[in-house]
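For this section, I looked closely at a protein sequence along with its fold in token form, which I now present.
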Amino acid sequence: MTNQRFYHIGFGQNDLGVSPPVLALLSGDPERARLIADSYLQNVQLLSENRGLNSYLGYLPNGCPVLSATSGMGAPSLSIVVNELMQVGIRQIIRIGTCGSIQPHIPVGSIVISNAALCRQGAANDIAPVEYPAAADPFLTVALVKAARELAVDYYLGITASVDTFYEGQERTDSANPNLMRSLQGITAEYRRLNILNYEMECGTLFKMAGVYGFAAAAVCGVVAQRTVTEEIIVSQTDVAVKNAIATAVYAAGLQALA
């Protein structure tokens, strides 16, 4: 298997060198994966741009090797990428994403660190039963919290609603389909009362995969929408939110390397 280049991610174990990474920084957006590689890592090597799933091998300032990889949008794509990353030797994954806050006290530009997810995702149901917990690794999560504190990033720790769709699944009515099913009408307010912090589309499946496959996973998302005010993405604050999430994840990766 060491000589195999995997069909979706486009690289294999032999492409990772004599000291291969065990930790991946996983972004949904290939441009975010490129930004991490170009701006936060050293001695970067492009591994693949296959299917837009850009992957880079680089090194933290302390010399620890890491991957900056792309999952694509949504849980089905993420499940494929994560499965293949496990097969090339990755054992820790920090998801770096964006999200919409559903709590009035969590502002755009801040970050949410997920310690668990309410998982409403079909891909996860192929991996484990609905009742199987979607829980983040506590040690990676503590590293993210410590990183945010040391970087003075405004962060919030709690439960995330991880759903399959951006529009209907997050109760957006300002779209091509304003006619939501009854089961989704009022769901955001219900989640708010359950003290769920935010919506995103990947970490529930990631956390269940971590439990089943036996690797460590955590997630940090920049807040780009405040759903108690508007359904819209606040474009002017997106760069700040994403940079805060990236900086926190990279710092936490460095802490893990020293652990």
In short: Strands lie at 23-27, 42-48, 55-59, 65-70, 92-101, 111-120, 155-163, 196-200, 216-226. The chain is about 30% helix and 25% strand. The mean pLDDT is 96.
